[in-house]
Amino acid sequence: MKISILAVGLLAGGLASAASAQDVLRIATEGAYPPFNNVTADGELVGFDVEIAEALCASMERECEIVAQDWDGIIPGLVNDKYDAIIASMSITEERKQAIDFSAPYYSNYLSVVGADGTSATLEKLGDVSIGAQRSTTGSQWAEDTYGNRADIRLYDTNPAAFSDLSAGRVETVVADFLPAAEWVKDNQDFGFVAEKIDIADQIGIGVRKGEDALREDLNTAIEAIRADGTYQTISVKYFGIDIF
């Protein structure tokens, strides 16, 4: 009888642990893309993507476990089950959809080109100057597709690294998403937009593994819920002063 009770107790404990593990949603973000996601000096993950992830978890009544993952490894990490979802301002592209699935978009994006004040660079002449961009992004792909045959395109592991070389004069322009570009220009007064908003019909979604349809639908429902109750707008205005949806 004691053995049976112990066995039942162990089984119940195991089921509770399994249920608890299922309640934790493991989310990856880049941690190097301010103001969307960044790591503070104290090692804390902060930013729009991080707060949206937390809001979605709260709406789904699941615990969030958010980790930083370098951009080049972020899709392989999802595919290899290191985490359950990517909330990292990732553009929904046909190429990426070959490897993973996406939620409905949670904001729309534009590209920008930034250069030093007084630069002779224009959008029409961008192929004649050096262009910096973060590798494996819509910005780098756009630069390569548009100017790749004649431009000096230099790719960086992170967006801040590209802007650092722009600031140091090692590259003449940087192609980046509009909102982080605007944030950088605001803090670097000797620089401005060569082109402020380039519409490439870019939609940003949450990445999930192929076949995780239940999770994808739960995330879609949660996106709708935080839009409906105003949580999304509050977070967006906190970071950008507007609703970026």
TrEMBL record:
Domain of life: Bacteria
Locations listed in the record: Cell envelope
UniProt keyword terms in alphabetical order: Signal
InterPro entries: SBP_3_CS, Solute-binding_3/MltF_N
Signal peptide as annotated in the record: 1-21
GO cellular component, one term: cell envelope
Boundaries of every Solute-binding protein family 3/N-terminal domain copy: 24-243
Family: Belongs to the bacterial solute-binding protein 3 family.
Protein name as it appears in the record: Putative ABC transporter arginine-binding protein 2
